[in-house]
């Protein structure tokens, strides 16, 4: 390597008319310059190679970003379509819910009328499963439903509401018919002598053939005798119109009430009559006082039920007590 410490002279002859120029450089420079050129060439090659790879990667990334952007736009459009569909479903659900609520109000009102007619008392409403929901601590993780689940749920709810609305539309005429039938049945009950005409349940003589207390001979007893104290209240056994209110022998003070459907009731031996002919009475109304007038051996009510002009046994009709007013 001694030559590297030597100096080398370069002669430059520019022109025949110009002087020769000489340049003296160390030997080390002669080695460094080619080495530097080679190093720069290698660096340039490496840079070009790396840049080409990065450019390819960048191109791929741009392509992926383009695809992702397209996918996001498509998903966004799908979400917007779903949201629009949900908004439409919510609007339809709201309208359907109002319709169902209106129908439910009508049916609830009809139900209350039916309960009133039937005499059903309101009771505490409980959940059908037997589980009651009360105030207290609550908790648990909230898990949101997917949009598709919400959409499906809205569609199912709308379908169920439509089905409920149709069922209620079908149910209302049936309930109306039931109401009319109940009103008719209630009216029949009101004009049927089903309550005891006195507070007393002491039967002193039944309907049918018996020994007459005066003649001691067999005779037909046309009614039911209820013992009691003079002045005890006597009640109308059913709704009706008073067609007779008088005092005659052997009936004493007596009242006849026409209940319609060819049914009459008669109340004999009263101490006092409290209604007159033409009066309209309701089942359980006070019409007189128990007494001992006419052909009677002691204070009692002789009660008769007359159907189609014939006396029948009152006992099968006596099914309930008078309601307190």
UniProtKB/TrEMBL annotation:
Coiled coil: 69-103
GO molecular function, one term: metalloendopeptidase activity
Pfam families attached to this UniProt entry: Peptidase_M23 (PF01551)
Domain M23ase beta-sheet core: 220-314
Membrane keyword on record: yes
InterPro entries: Cell_wall_metabolism_enzyme (IPR050570), Dup_hybrid_motif (IPR011055), M23ase_b-sheet_dom (IPR016047)
Keyword terms, alphabetized: Coiled coil, Membrane, Transmembrane, Transmembrane helix
Transmembrane segments: 28-51
Cross-referenced PANTHER family: MUREIN HYDROLASE ACTIVATOR ENVC, PEPTIDASE-RELATED
Protein name, UniProt field: M23 family peptidase
